[in-house]
């Protein structure tokens, strides 16, 4: 780990696992330029996550947790540092390779759902399939299966504005799942939902994690949600303040 | 990612955003439609004026008395300026041209008497009487709708026979058949032997409101018009060349004969004018060219307005589209896939909008043409111009923001406000 161990004493220990982590980030930094001032969103974050884990990343707003998740999801690039996904260095990938990672390797769930507003649930879920090279009846069938899996088998032709917030987030989860990635990243997935609906979404995540062995990383500021995961990583001011140790496989 | 899949994604996006697609297309339709319609009117006017000039005769060369300047300048510079000391044109001049200029289709002198009273029973009208020769029909493209043209005997005998223009015939006879009826021209009785086909008013007066009589008859009944040398005056001499290419030679040869006839010394100014259709055409062309330019400018403004409409819609939707692009990239779209989608969207909109615009423009052109006031001619140029412009506007305002958005990191594009 980097310099932060000198400034921030943590209880974190190197996880005692012999197999290779699916995600291995070393000393990630991210600097945004806002006009003349530089914002250091990440100051050197190192993190390892193994296949099949369910990890919560918590921290106050501005702690850099969403920035970290975007980098882990290949939606953004770090200013410096190394990020290996399944042993491949993501920071060195070109645009097309990144697109492929986003399409096949990782499913991303946003706080604000981010669905195509004027397309049906089915079309939204089928979108990653189209970019993966699958379209037509096969794609629709697969998208319908995914919507059924998240409990929306009877809402295929509804548009986002005809669906509740919880239903929209389910569509987004179905979209994240449709190319069968091994990792799902969720950025405050319950942040725009009431607590009952939030619980349903978390139950869905837990079921997916348990039954499909999906690696799940959830960014949240809600301790109740974090408590449902197997491991918590807490960020503060762009650094890992605390990281629970991974259980042996 | 093959082309058809891209095409499918683009069509899905177009159909999912019907209002935006429709408004964008409307801009293209209005722009293209107005260009096609307005330029068709400009071209139609140009063609109809050119057609009128050609209808006064084929490959026509005209000799007028005095110095005539044809200009498109201010009114006081236009028209006929006759120097005080000019010799009138005579039938001798006409004969000299016929005898000494080889290879002509025909030479047709005309004695014109404006404001001649022509009467049938109680109907009385003031029209132009034209004393003409047999060749006149061929030289001036006069066609007979009813009855017959003059024959050689009519001219030799100075027969009292007349051929009416269709408007003159209408005014005198209404629905009656004029053939064989007796009319009075001035005070002399004439038998109507024919009615010409209408050609409309042209540069050399309106033949439709004229009455034609044999030249020899005109000398007896209208005016004797003998000059001091005993030759008989004519008002104008029409000469028809065999081909358009031959007109410059005929023009030079006619001028040479006329200078000899009128005894004009080397270097002295002509007291006659030789005009060709090319001169008429070039003057008319400069006028109609300005008209077409003017209409083109209006059409250009329409295009610009249409283009601004497209631009507005594209710019207003930039935020939404930037988010959309971020989202598409977040689920695995490559940059070139995004650009291909926007390219296909734009081209599809431009082609559909362009086609509808062309149909609208052609429709308006046909409608305007159907009123009979103005002819309209749709040209390929105007269609190409309009479609190219709309495509360029669409590409620029569609692709440019899309390219910028596609260059952002997906997370930036998704969070774009």
Characterization of the model:
The complex is a heterodimer of chains A (249) and B (417). Chain A is an alpha/beta fold. Chain A is 33% helix and 25% strand. Chain A has a single domain, classed as P-loop containing nucleotide triphosphate hydrolases (Rossmann fold). In chain A, the strands form 2 sheets. In chain A, strands 6-7-8-3-9-10 form a 6-stranded mixed beta sheet, sandwiched between helices. Chain A has a 4-stranded antiparallel beta sheet with strand order 2-1-4-5, with helices on one face. Chain B has 417 residues and is α+β, with helices and mostly antiparallel strands. Chain B has 2 domains: 182 residues, no CATH class; 184 residues, no CATH class. Chain B contains 13 helices and 12 strands. Chain B has a 6-stranded mixed β-barrel. In chain B, strands 2-3 form a two-stranded antiparallel sheet. In chain B, helix 2 runs antiparallel to helix 12 and helix 9 packs parallel to helix 12. Chain B is elongated, with a radius of gyration of 33 Å. Classes of the chains: A alpha/beta (249), B alpha+beta (417). Chains A and B meet through helix 3 and helix 4 of A and helix 1, helix 10 and helix 13 of B.
Write a compact overview of the structure shown:
The complex is a heterodimer of chains A (249) and B (417). Chain A has 249 residues and is of the alpha/beta class.
Main attributes of the structure:
heterodimer; A: 249 residues; alpha/beta; Rossmann fold; four-stranded antiparallel β-sheet; 8 helices; 33% helix; globular; disordered N terminus; B: 417 residues; alpha+beta; six-stranded mixed beta barrel; two-stranded antiparallel sheet; 18% strand; elongated
| CATH homolog superfamily of chain A | P-loop containing nucleotide triphosphate hydrolases
How widely separated are the two ends of chain A? 22 Å
CATH architecture of chain A: 3-Layer(aba) Sandwich
Give average pLDDT of chain B, whole number. 84
In what order do the strands lie side by side in the largest sheet of chain A? 6-7-8-3-9-10
Termini of chain B, distance in Å? 30 Å
Share of residues in helices of chain B: 40-55%
The unreliable regions of chain B are 72-79
CATH topology heading of chain A: Rossmann fold
Number of domains of chain A: 1
Rounded mean pLDDT of chain A is: 88
User: Strand tally of chain A, please?
Assistant: 10
